[in-house]
From TrEMBL:
Pfam families reported in the protein's UniProt record: HD_5
Superkingdom of this protein's organism: Bacteria
Protein name as it appears in the record: HD-GYP domain-containing protein
Domain annotation HD-GYP: ranges: 113-309
Amino acid sequence: MRLVSLRQVRPGMKLGRTVFTEDGKVLLGTGMVLTERLIAGLTRSKIDAVYIDDPRTEDIQVEEVIRPQTRQIAVEAIEKTFKQITNSNKLARKISLIEMGLHFQRAFSSILDDLLLNKQMIGHLSSISSHSPSLYHHSVNVAVLATAVGMSLGYNRQRLMDLGIGAMLHDMGKLNLPEEMLQKEERWTDEEKEIAKQHTMHGFNMLRKQHDISLLSAHVCLQHHERLDGSGYPQGLQGKQIHEYAQIVGIADVYDSLTSPRPWRKRYMPQDALEYLLGSGGHLFEHQLVNAFIKHIAVFPIGSSVVLNTGEVGVVSRVDPDYSHRPTVRIIKDGRGNDIHPPFDLNLKASIKLFIVGFEDDDLFRMNDVANETTS
C-alpha cells in the first residue's frame, strides 16, 4: 500500500487502511473501493490523505502500533467523556466526572497493551497519524508517542499509566474555551491565543479533583506548554521545575501538531518537525528527552512516496530504526517520470550517493519554515 493525498485519489482505487471519523467511528473500512461519492465524503470529513492498495506495492504493509479497534475505543472514550462534561445537565455531568478515571484507565490500558506487544514497531511511530485533525485523534496520537518515550526510558507500568493518561487528557481544558474558537477554521488572533493559554489551568483544575486520576497526570495537563528556558505558560517554569512527564507530552504534542493538517495549513514534513525539535533541545526541552523521542520516529514513513536526488520516485518499503533517514525504497518511476516494470527495492543505507530530497506528493505538505509555526 502507499499513502496518497485526497487530491490524487481517483474512483476505483481501493483503501488499504481503515479511515475513522473525528469521533472515532469507522468511516470506511479496509478494502473499500472508492467512488466519487465516497471521495466527496472523505473531503467533507476533512481527511487529507488515505492509504490505497497498489499492485506495485502490495507487499508493503503499514502496520499500526495500536489496533484500529484500540484507537476507536480510545477516541470514543475521549469524545464521550468530553461531551458529557460540557453537558448542560448537571446530573449527567456529575456522573461523567465520577466515572472519568475508570473510562480512561481502561482505554489507556488497551493502548499500553498494544504497545507492549508491538515493541518491534516502535521505531515507525510516524505512521500513527489518523489523517484527521480532530482533538480526539490528536489526544490518542500524543498518548502513543509519549508512552513510547516512557517505555524507552524504562518506566514501569504505573509510571506509564500516569504519563499516558495525562497525555490523553492534556488538552482537556480546551472544553472551557469559547465554542466559536474551537470551531474556527482560521488562525487564532493574538487575543484568542491568550484566551487559549488558559486551557492548561482549566484542565488541571478539573483533573486534580478526580480521586482516580493521578495528580501527576493532572500536572501533565498543567505543564505541557511550559518550556525549559521559561518561555512557556501558564507559570513560566524553568528547568527542573517542569515535570519530566509534562516535557515528554510537550514534545509529542508539538510533533503531532506540526505533522497534522490544520484548516489554514498543510501538515509539515516529519523531517522538518524533527529538525525543529532537535533545535529545541537544551532550549525548550531536555536534550535527553528529545533524543529519546526522535529514536522512535521514522523520518520517511513506510508507504510514503519519495523523490531521490536522481529524480526517481519510489515508495518507502522498509525502515531501519537506526538509519531512519536512509530507508529502503521501492522504485516505481525513473528520473523522467516513466513507470518502471518491474519495480525494484533500493536500500539507501548501501547506496551512499543516493538520498531522498523530498516527498512526491506536494499536496500533503507545507514547505515553509516550521520555526515560525506555533502550537497551542
